């Protein structure tokens, strides 16, 4: 065996010298040859030909030509694997070469997931930082709730499980309304002005809240009865809360006043509420006796006592026209009818129509005065009541009424001459004029209520 090695070395030296003779070469090549001669010889019997491989945080699995536990024998092949949480960098498989070195190298680098971003209004904490199998738990600020998965785990591939959660504001704001309140309507009114302080609203997440009033504004007029006042509040996430309270407006009322017999009432406001005033008025042919009006007081009672409507009485024996007219002033209208004599055809026709319309004239507060003939047989009367001659003369002079032809003069409640007729007129024409030009609105309304009374 040594002899063969010497022969091989000599042959190799000869071949190298032969090929180098014709080239320009220095002696460094010879030195390289000497080093090559020191290259280890293949020896499958040497168990420690290559240093035993070592892989921190991993595992080396080798197959040796001699089998068994020989990990550094020439020709041994080793498979490299890393522990969980580590990634192999380098060769997956290496082999022990003749130069006593392995065919490659490898090492295990710890797998790391990227840093998780913070979520608005929340935070997270991890068991092992950002390495494999680390579990990061997400929590939210008070007033917010996790939407999505509550945790994420760093997987062995270096990625996180699941998706990033969000912190959603699901906690509704809190609002507290004022206490319910009772308010009495002011005198003569059916409403009351009610005020209150707006409610305060709070939220665990937002400082600025949108508080909305659903119903009437504070300080406005509220009608009689119950009113539910509602407030709503929204936070920036549109979570809603609401509250409500009651405003009650009370109208203090007196018992209903009965109208007088042969009369009626005209009342202000609602008729029987606190502060309302009711005036006693009488039908035609009647006048008021007693207080003209009564007021509903806070204690729910009426001031004064009730009035009566009694038949209207006039003194027809007065000596002057002024004394007569003063009795009718603001009470009755006068229709003065004059004719030369009782047999005058215009008078007779008009008298028939006047008698038929007597009820309608009474409803319109009209009294008929008749002046007939000439002195010394001249007469003046109101129904069956005769007037003094001085009064008759005073009426003719005051209103320029002739004795020589038929005429009628219509006076209003102030004694003013409003219309003259020189020919007979129908009751419809006379009533139309009175209704349109002499009656007040309240009288017309009253007339409509009692129009059927004369049918």
TrEMBL record:
Keyword terms: Angiogenesis, Cell adhesion, Cytoplasm, Disulfide bond, Repeat, Secreted, Signal, Sushi, Synapse
Range of residues in the leader sequence: 1-25
Annotated Sushi domain residues: 60-110, 111-169, 252-311
GO cellular component: cell surface; cytoplasm; extracellular region; synapse
HYR domain span: 168-251
Subcellular localization: Cell surface; Cytoplasm; Secreted; Synapse
MF terms in GO: signaling receptor binding
Pfam families for the chain: DUF4174, HYR, Sushi
Main localization category: other
Disulphide bridges, residue numbers: 140-167, 282-309
GO biological process: angiogenesis; cell-cell adhesion; positive regulation of cell migration involved in sprouting angiogenesis; positive regulation of synapse assembly
Bilayer-spanning residue ranges: none
Protein name, per record: Sushi repeat-containing protein SRPX2
């Amino acid at each position: 065996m040594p002899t063969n090695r010497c022969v091989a070395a000599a042959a190799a030296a000869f071949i190298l010298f032969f090929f180098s003779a014709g080239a320009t070469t220095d002696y460094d090549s010879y030195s390289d040859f000497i080093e090559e001669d020191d290259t280890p010889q293949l020896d499958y019997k040497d168990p420690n030909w290559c240093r035993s491989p070592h892989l921190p945080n991993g595992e080396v699995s080798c197959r040796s030509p001699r089998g068994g536990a020989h990990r550094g024998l020439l020709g041994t092949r080793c498979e490299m694997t890393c522990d969980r949480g580590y990634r192999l960098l380098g060769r997956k498989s290496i082999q022990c070469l003749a130069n006593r070195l392995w065919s490659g190298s490898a090492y295990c680098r710890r797998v790391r997931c990227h840093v998780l971003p913070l979520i608005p209004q929340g935070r997270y904490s991890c068991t092992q930082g950002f390495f494999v199998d680390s579990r990061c738990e997400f929590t939210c600020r008070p007033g917010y709730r996790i939407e999505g998965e509550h945790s994420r785990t760093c997987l062995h591939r270096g990625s996180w499980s699941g998706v990033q959660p969000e912190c959603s504001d699901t906690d509704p704001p809190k609002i507290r309304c004022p206490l319910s309140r009772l308010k009495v309507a002011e005198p003569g009114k059916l409403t009351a002005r009610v005020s209150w302080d707006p409610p305060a609203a709070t939220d665990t997440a937002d400082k600025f809240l949108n508080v909305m009033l659903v119903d009437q504004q504070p300080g406005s007029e509220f009608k009689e009865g119950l009113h539910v006042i509602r407030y709503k509040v929204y936070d920036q996430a549109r979570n809603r809360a609401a509250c409500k309270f009651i405003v009650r407006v009370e109208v203090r009322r007196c018992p209903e006043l009965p109208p007088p017999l042969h009369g009626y009432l005209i009342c202000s406001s609602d008729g029987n509420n606190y502060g309302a005033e009711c005036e006693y008025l009488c039908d035609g042919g009647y006048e008021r006796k007693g207080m003209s009006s009564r007021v509903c007081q806070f204690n729910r009672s009426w001031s004064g006592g009730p009035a009566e409507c009694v038949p209207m009485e006039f003194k027809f024996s007065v000596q002057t026209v002024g004394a007569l007219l003063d009795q009718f002033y603001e009470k009755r209208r006068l229709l003065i009818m004059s004719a030369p004599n009782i047999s005058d055809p215009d008078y007779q026709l008009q008298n028939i129509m006047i008698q038929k319309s007597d009820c309608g004239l009474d409803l319109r507060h009209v009294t008929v005065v008749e002046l007939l003939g000439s002195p010394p047989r001249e007469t003046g009367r109101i129904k069956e009541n005769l007037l003094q001659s001085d009064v008759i003369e005073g009426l003719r002079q005051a209103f320029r009424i002739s004795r020589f032809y038929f005429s009628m003069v219509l006076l209003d409640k102030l004694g003013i001459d409003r219309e003259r007729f020189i020919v007979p007129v129908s009751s419809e024409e006379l009533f139309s004029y009175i209704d349109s030009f002499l009656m007040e609105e309240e009288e017309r309304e009253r007339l409509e209520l009692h129009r059927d009374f004369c049918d």
